[in-house]
């Protein structure tokens, strides 16, 4: 009997010991199952082909993928008495990792992606849902072409840090009914904070019909056949307005109707690893246009277009452009500034490590000339500009300042102008086809503090007639000898009687 009692006591003791250690077999085999991300667009496309078109998609709206609610597969039920989750090693104070972003695919909102059906309303519905969720992702999936009319993805009541994931292609309509009497933009993101456009997709403006429509020598019958009854006002392909912390990366914008990418009244902008592509004869197709924007960085971007690769307009400051390629096009320009007696202020611009090939100009500053007796050239200033490490190949005029800029056949000389000072040209080398340097500054407001260092520019063909460097009312200093010699640059500072008024100052 005592042996039975001792056996029972030992059995109970073994149970108590096991219950106090995690090494017991009773705990083994229980693990958390991580939430799974949505299936790929390609897999969904194949599933539609096998199970019937449109399976699982609503026509007018809906939520994220996965039962139309959360966008994820449901996890397995948790085991009883699970251990507390360990905090992420990258997070401080024991805070937990944030949940994965909610994803909203335009296909779930009725988009067809066949390149023919108008998917504008589906895009609007997807945005309206994503707008309500901070850190959400609006997905434009790969291997689809979405015909989208003029559209605005706008705040200011949207949540922050929304991602527009563009992996497919968005194409513009060429039918005049979409454009009315003319619009300034095709795709717009307005009054947003923390907006990112990213992916491997394409924004296709189909701009050739717009370019041909403005050519006087294009036959009217050809215009009619190409649906070219289009308004004269051509839209910008992608525009950001009044937004903070904007990122554009990875995507391609091509064949824009007019300007490819524009930032207006934006702050803290990054553009990189993207491509802009239009032929050199496409009229007014600037690559990137900046206006009233500050703290902008553009880098590792390839641009070919029919106008300025980068155009920096009034109200811009703290702009950093580096590691970009431009050509064909008109080069990288500040201006035109001061049109119709307007005040223009631009400061703290750095352009460095840039390759320009087969462009009209290399690095250029242009301000408006007086058009008629009641319209002077403008006021304000351009200062603290640095062009450094620029390589030019077969560029017509690599270095240019033009304060007599005019887009008409004849313009009168100006009596006031935007003041230019503190402009440095450093390590600019390569070949030109017309003129190496052109400095044409205003009589009323000469250019001052212009410096040249290690400028070496050679004509493409030695025996072909080339123009010599030109300077007018340009003052500064040569820190090293230039090739060819820029002997026309005047030393010191200008002796001008022009007194700056409050209207002139920035």
Provide a descriptive summary of the structure in words.
- The protein has 506 residues and is mainly beta.
- 10% of the residues lie in helices and 38% in strands.
- It is built from five helices and 31 strands.
- The strands form two sheets. The protein has a 20-stranded parallel β-sheet that branches. An eleven-stranded parallel β-sheet has the order 5-8-11-14-17-19-21-23-25-27-29.
- The chain is elongated.
- Mean pLDDT is 81; it is low at 11-98 and 371-376.
Let me know the average pLDDT.
81
The radius of gyration is 31 Å
Number of helices: 5
Estimated structural class:
mainly beta
Percent of residues in helices? 10-25%
What fraction of the residues are assigned to beta strands by DSSP?
35-45%
Q: How does the major sheet shape up?
A: 20 strands, parallel
Q: Which oligomeric form is depicted?
A: single chain
Distance between the termini: 105 Å
Shape: elongated
Poorly predicted regions: 11-98, 371-376
């Amino acid at each position: 009997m005592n042996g039975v009692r001792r056996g029972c006591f030992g059995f109970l003791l073994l149970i108590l010991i096991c219950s106090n250690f995690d090494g017991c077999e009773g705990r083994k085999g229980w693990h958390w199952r991580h939430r799974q991300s949505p299936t790929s667009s390609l897999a969904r496309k194949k599933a539609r082909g096998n199970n019937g078109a449109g399976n699982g998609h609503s026509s007018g709206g809906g939520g994220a993928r996965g039962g139309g609610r959360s966008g994820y597969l449901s996890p397995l039920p948790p085991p009883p008495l699970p251990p507390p989750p360990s905090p992420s090693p990258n997070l401080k104070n024991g805070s937990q990792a944030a949940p994965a972003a909610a994803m909203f695919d335009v296909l779930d909102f009725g988009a067809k992606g066949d390149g023919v059906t108008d998917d504008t309303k589906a895009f609007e519905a997807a945005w309206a849902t994503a707008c309500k969720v901070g850190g959400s992702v609006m997905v434009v999936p790969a291997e689809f072409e979405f015909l989208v009319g003029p559209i605005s993805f706008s705040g200011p009541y949207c949540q922050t840090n929304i991602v527009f994931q563009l992996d497919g292609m968005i194409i513009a309509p060429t039918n005049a009914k979409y454009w009315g009497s003319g619009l300034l933009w095709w795709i717009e993101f307005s009054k947003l904070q923390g907006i990112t456009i990213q992916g491997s997709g394409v924004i296709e403006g189909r701009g050739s019909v717009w370019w041909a429509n403005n050519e006087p020598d294009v036959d009217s019958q050809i215009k009619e056949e190409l649906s070219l009854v289009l308004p004269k006002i051509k839209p910008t392909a992608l525009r950001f307005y009044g937004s903070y912390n904007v990122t554009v990366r990875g995507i391609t914008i091509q064949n824009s109707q007019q300007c490819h990418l524009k930032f207006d009244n934006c702050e803290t902008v990054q553009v990189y690893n993207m491509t802009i592509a239009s032929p050199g004869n496409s009229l007014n197709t600037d690559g990137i246009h900046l206006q009233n924007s500050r703290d902008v960085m553009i880098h590792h971007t390839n641009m070919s277009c029919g106008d300025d690769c980068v155009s920096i307009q009034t109200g811009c400051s703290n702009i950093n452009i580096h590691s970009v390629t431009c050509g064909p096009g008109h080069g990288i320009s500040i201006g035109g500034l001061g049109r119709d007696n307007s005040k223009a202020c631009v400061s703290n611009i750095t352009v460095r490590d840039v390759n320009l090939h087969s462009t009209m100009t290399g690095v250029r500053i242009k301000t408006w000339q007086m058009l008629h007796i009641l319209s002077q050239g403008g006021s304000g200033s351009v200062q603290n500009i640095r062009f450094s490490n620029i390589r030019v190949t077969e560029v017509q005029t690599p270095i240019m300042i033009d304060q007599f800029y005019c887009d008409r056949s004849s313009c009168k000389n100006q009596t006031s102008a935007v003041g230019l000072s503190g402009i440095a040209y450093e390590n600019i080398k390569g070949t030109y086809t017309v003129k190496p340097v052109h400095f044409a500054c205003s009589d009323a407001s000469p250019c001052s503090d212009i410096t040249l260092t290690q400028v070496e520019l050679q004509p493409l063909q030695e025996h072909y007639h080339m123009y010599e460097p030109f300077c007018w009312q340009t003052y500064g200093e040569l820190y090293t000898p230039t090739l060819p010699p820029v002997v026309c640059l005047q030393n010191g500072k200008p002796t001008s009687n022009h007194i700056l008024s409050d209207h002139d100052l920035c």
